Amino acid sequence: MRPPAAARRPVIRTHHGDSFEDPYEWLRAKDDPEVLAHLEAENAYTDARTAHLGPLREQLFDEVKSRVLETDLSVPTRRGDWWYYGRTEEGAQYGIQCRTAAVAEDWTPPVLEPGVPVPGEQVLLDGNVEADGHEFFSLGAFDVSDDGSRLLWSVDVEGSELYTVHVRDLVSDERFDDVIENTGQAFFTPDGTSVVYTTRDEAWRPDTLWLHRLGTPVEDDVKLFHEPDERFWLGAGITRSKRFLVIGLGSKITSEELLIDIDDLTAEPRVVWPRRDGVEYSVDHAIVDGEDRLLILHNDDALDFELVSVAASDPQGERRVLLPHSPGTRLLDVDCFRDFATVEYRSEGMPRAAILDYRSGALDVVEFDEPLYEAYFSGNPEWHAPFLRMGRTSFVTPSTVLELELATGEKHVRKQQPVLGGYDPADYGQQRVWATAPDGVRVPVSLVWKRSFGDPGEAPRPLHLYGYGSYEHSIDPGFSTMRLSLLDRGVIFAVAHVRGGGEMGRHWYEDGKELHKRNTFTDFVACAQHLIDTGVSTPDRMVAEGGSAGGLLMGAVANLAPELFAGILAGVPFVDALTSILDPSLPLTVVEWDEWGDPLHDAEVYAYMKTYTPYENIRTDVAYPRILAMTSLNDTRVLYVEPAKWVAALRHSGAQDVVMKCEMSAGHGGVSGRYNAWRERAFEIAWMLDVLGLA
Fold it and tell me: Which residues, at least 6 apart from 567, have a Cβ–Cβ distance to it below 8 Å?
């Protein structure tokens, strides 16, 4: 079967005196029957080219099913007078949200057994019922009023990330007539009488915050705040103390936060610190020795951030330094509780978690005995409780929920993700090695493998190299049941922690964005080369993968060093980046200028981006590796047209084995439903195993 050949209909794009001939821009017309027919033809071609992998895909799907406890429950979380938890049922695509009454003084979560009815269970929301009749379903907001009497939830059935809000009375089980469409965030006010929610502008940017009083027409909703600057996203939340509504405004490099007293939500918001270009900060509320204080995490003259305390009544007044700036220790997040704050940070490339005592100023780090791991605080809605919940995982340790007993410091493991079939972490190894980039910078690479096949470097092995490298996002050690299907076949999994991510602190991000973006790509190539030079793998046994901005990375390294890889998997890939960033009418473009630069108004940025963007730099003088591009028709973040154009251009250049799969009813996150997601990942892993000669 011959691959689809998209018609070449050149249009000329000219900026800063430079012209580029784009033959496939016509594929952008999403509703054009010819475009839809072309995408369907791509899918048919991919189905034909991968048909021989059908049995392997089923085997991989069965493998993950055999490892997962399909009927299971989460550890209950205490909120008010109830324990809230989620559960899954065998054969059901989506989770079920439930609660059961709590005993007033007992803060130890009840132990729930899979398949055993929970006494007094009340089903709040069954995702399978909500999803019935829809090809796609995503649950957005989910909130219960503080008194436990009302439920708010929102759903997206297209993949557009625009949600419809519904409200139900949990006592009478009757739905409110109130329905709010095209929302982003949504949550109750503390008294449960109103809903705070965000809406987006035409560029898909959350820009307006609203207050809806239940029982009144949506048309009468009160606009609490509007952000006109197209670079800034708007978000909101209520402090754990229930004292303030916090409005957060942020571009990629600048932020500003405003407060509204919870007792007067229609009052004029007051600015904490006026925005200053390049200064980022976040705010939470604490009460220290009876005084209202704001804890502010900021980078004002502090590259890796500093934590200060200010008076809530005068936030621009005296700053008390709680955690001073320490180069190389990147402070990430602070959450306030009655007697302490939790702090999450990065040190030596690894995520860490600690507790800050307000009065003594002591920082107590929560340690785990493992060379690579991720630890974080999660599931702590109450202002004061005797336990503090955490999550912990690594490449070899399944996700674990534990609680710190605050009075004693003792760690109580509440649950570890079950892995059926006799999984033993000791059968697998993990380590970090270092590659050297062309400019001499040392780049960390994390490895995980099955020990029975030998340690890395003893003999070249098949290898799966993953990378991202944008938005200061870090790829931290995390467990995956699906990954076991690769490891158990002898494949080494590796993560290249390239610049543009946040693994090594803020400078790591700064050195991989805007006019330093090429470092992201050359770092990845250096990591691949290091793994080859040290005998860990060989080019004919290495597959690279990245998604979204990591898909841009994949397209770039395909042009830079196609000889190093047997295959490249690009998920929802940002491969036509220059075209997108030049067009401010496209969703999210203007907010991205702080990440990539503004090529529309800056000739230097335009020229620099044109040197690396994958679509403009496809080569005819090289043999490309096998390429699989995954995309979704309703993706609003990276439009389907980017991989569609890229694949067409690759084929025209002579690339021999390029396929694309386009989900016709999904968004940026791919298909919905856990079984559908497993099948999609089985499709990708089967393709990788085929490339590696292990199919």
Answer: 543, 544, 625, 626, 627, 628, 687, 688, 691, 692
Measured distance CA(36)–CA(58) in Å, rounded: 28
Q: What is the structure's pLDDT at 276?
A: 97
439/55 Cα distance (integer angstroms): 46
Is there a contact between 97 and 168 (Cβ–Cβ < 8 Å)?
A: no
The structure tokens listed for 275 are 């925005």
Contact 89, 96 (CB under 8 A): yes
Average pLDDT, the chain: 96
Residue 555 phi, psi dihedral angles, 5° rounding: -65, -35
What residues are annotated to the active site?
A: 548, 635, 668
Angle separating helix axes 54-67 and 674-691, nearest 10 degrees: 130
Q: If pLDDT is split at 50, 70 and 90, which confidence band does 167 have?
A: very high
Calpha distance 197→224 (Å, rounded): 10
Instruction: Please check the confidence at residue 669 and state whether its pLDDT lies above 80.
Output: no
Locate tokens 């090429």: which residue?
A: 518
pLDDT over 80 at 253, yes or no: yes
Distance from the first to the final alpha carbon of the chain? 21
Closest CA to 260 of 200, 184, 189, 340: 189
- Give the C-alpha separation, 505 to 511, whole Å: 10
Tell me the sheet residues that pair with 168.
Answer: 151, 175
The confidence band for 666, taking pLDDT boundaries of 50, 70 and 90, is: low
